[in-house]
UniProtKB/TrEMBL annotation:
Residues 221-329 form the Glucose-methanol-choline oxidoreductase N-terminal domain. InterPro entries: FAD/NAD-bd_sf, GMC_OxRdtase_N, GMC_OxRtase_C. Residues 428-552 form the Glucose-methanol-choline oxidoreductase C-terminal domain. Keywords: FAD, Flavoprotein, Oxidoreductase. Pfam families: GMC_oxred_C, GMC_oxred_N. GO terms for molecular function: flavin adenine dinucleotide binding; oxidoreductase activity, acting on CH-OH group of donors. This is Gluconate 2-dehydrogenase alpha chain. Belongs to the GMC oxidoreductase family.
């Protein structure tokens, strides 16, 4: 029997970046907010032993326990979907801060083209540039409308960067802090790309170049360039994350309370509204109902979609008929690139998660696609994240993956190899979607989320094109041997690729083509908001965090307005 708790103004499910932003903004506005986090409390003081690579990077200390809850994966509808038994292709965060704790800190704004991709593509290339199997649509909001929210996040996080990219959307104000260090490795990339006629610039970073106090009074320290960012928390408090910014801000108001080990299993709906959520205390086994005037789902992409599905809110997407929106437009990313092997030694063991340099000459629609069989592109970067000794074993193609020759080559190449990588855009396809598995359940008795996904012809063409560009850059950098990434065939979950999953709870201007409106308010329940990268109708050529955060700030503004007057925000 569930215990019903005192009703609050807002209940937020998940306390990563999106949940933290919503909680902070609503609490500052005077609303009483409860945050439900299924993981444990943690913060800077917990990361003093964070350089234990085996514990954090190999055994995934900060990640979700897939023995309790995971997803099933298949490439197409004819295949059986099987559970992901260990973290591999992507890493699902767990605990306070979520993926915002173990991220690298790359902080981008999606392009104006991204927000109006259907309109702009049709206007320039005609409506048949891609086949009707690709489900392109505008987002229901423009870059210009989003720009103030992008900058609000920049200020909160203290983002370090430089406004030197000639392609991206116009910024109303410069970055809050200067760019990170231009190391010799980055200068090598800078010189090569400039000689090829491209426009390099420092990657916008949430590893701060200098100490910074944000508008809410939270202090973020300067990066120490230790090289332990991705999969790790920051023991210096220098990698901006929710637990050192928005969560303390919310707590200081006195209007915010967090409950840990609170796993939400249902959103309770009545008519055209929701009344609260049902959750389990994973330590005591007790069951609770937290009632609220507004419910905000701010968990990871997968969990937001799953909660709507198990709660029977919205119409599940059917690839056979094309009807329904829930689960539709799931997108991943592609990762073109090249490895280079040099004669000289470099300090590859030093770095930071977002220490890098980028070109956008082949991102978005910054180049002519008229004679190409794909759209969009990707940001091409060299990053100096710090080669950690256990998992970094750079070897040339044809080298055995074990034994004496493997050891010799990996040791030799450890300080003599570099990689150029790309965040390649992913376009939605009618056969790529999320649904509930009919066979497997989690430890709480709920169906597992099922992912049906494979790379498409669009992905393969873009991957080939961008890889050729990265090979040319690496040659220009002076590598003695250059190896481009192999062409992609079918998607395989084996081997880490990127945690940048998007779609499934997409936004748009109409309930016919989206789950939520441009304020991320659910079309079928006016007091339910669903916030995260699941709102993206497609995935861009960047990491999603900056765009996710901007959408969260805009949604928070809508939630506060709704709390005063109710009704649809559009």
């Amino acid at each position: 029997m569930a215990t019903t708790l005192t009703k609050v103004d807002v209940v937020v499910v998940g306390l990563g970046w999106t949940g933290g932003i919503i909680a902070a903004e609503c609490a500052k506005a005077g609303l009483k907010v409860i945050g439900l986090e299924r993981g444990r409390k943690r913060g800077t003081e917990d990361f003093q032993q964070i350089h234990d690579e085996y514990r954090y990077a190999v055994r995934y200390e900060l990640m979700q326990d897939v023995a309790k809850e995971t997803i099933t994966i298949r490439n197409n509808r004819k295949m059986p979907a099987l559970p992901m038994r260990q973290m591999s292709s992507f890493l699902l965060g767990d605990g306070l801060g979520g993926s915002g704790t173990h991220w690298n800190g790359h902080t981008w704004r999606f392009y104006p083209y991204d927000f109006q991709i259907k309109t702009m593509t049709d206007e320039k290339y005609g409506p048949n540039k891609l086949s009707s199997d690709y489900l392109l649509q505008d987002w229901g909001v423009t870059y210009d409308e989003m720009e103030p929210y992008f900058y609000k996040y920049d200020q909160t996080a203290g983002i370090s960067g430089e406004d030197k990219n000639p392609f991206w959307g116009k910024r109303a104000q410069d970055f809050p802090t200067p760019p990170m260090k231009r190391t010799p490795i980055l200068k090598k990339f800078e010189g090569a790309t400039q000689s090829l006629g491209y426009s390099p610039f420092m990657l916008p970073s949430a590893n701060l170049s200098e100490a910074y106090t944000n508008p809410d009074g939270e202090v973020i320290n300067a990066c120490q360039y230790c090289g332990f960012c991705e999969r790790f928390g920051c023991e210096y408090g220098a990698k901006t994350s929710p637990e050192i910014t928005v969560i303390p801000t919310a707590t200081k108001t006195g209007n915010f309370e967090t409950k840990f080990h609170a796993n939400v299993v249902e959103v309770i709906k009545s008519g055209n509204k929701v009344t609260g959520v049902r959750y389990l205390d994973t330590e005591s086994g007790e069951e609770f109902i937290q009632e609220a005037e507004v419910v905000v789902l701010a968990s990871y992409v997968m969990n937001n979609a799953k909660l709507l599905m198990v709660s029977n809110i919205g119409q599940q997407y059917d690839p056979e008929t094309g009807k329904g929106t829930l689960g539709k437009n799931y997108c991943y990313q592609i990762l073109p690139g090249a490895n280079g092997y040099f004669e000289e030694q470099m300090n590859t063991f030093m770095g930071a998660g977002a220490l890098g340099m980028t070109i956008d000459d082949f991102n978005a629609d910054n180049f002519d696609h008229s004679d190409l069989d794909f759209i969009h592109g990707g940001s091409i970067s060299i990053t100096q994240t710090g080669y950690r000794p256990i998992e970094t074993n750079p070897i040339q193609q044809g080298t055995p993956t074990w034994g004496a020759e493997f050891k010799k080559n990996s040791i030799y190449n450890y300080t003599r190899s570099l990689s150029i990588g790309t965040q390649g855009a992913s376009m939605p396809h009618k056969e790529n979607y999320l649904s509930l598995d009919t066979k497997y359940k989690d430890v709480y008795g709920l169906p597992l989320l099922q992912m049906t996904y494979n790379f498409t012809d669009q992905d393969r063409a873009l991957h080939k094109f961008i890889t050729e560009k990265t090979v040319n850059i690496m040659k220009e950098m002076g590598a003695k041997t250059v190896e481009g990434k192999a062409p992609i065939t079918d998607y395989d979950i084996v081997g880490y690729q990127t945690t940048h999953n998007t779609g499934g709870t997409i936004m748009g201007a109409s309930p016919e083509n989206s789950v939520v409106n441009p304020f991320l308010q659910h079309w079928d329940a006016e007091n339910l908001f669903v916030v995260g990268a699941g709102n993206f109708p497609h995935n861009g050529g960047y990491n999603p965090t900056g765009t996710v955060a901007a959408l969260a700030y805009r949604s928070a503004e809508g939630i506060i307005k709704y709390s005063k007057s109710g009704g649809s925000l559009v």
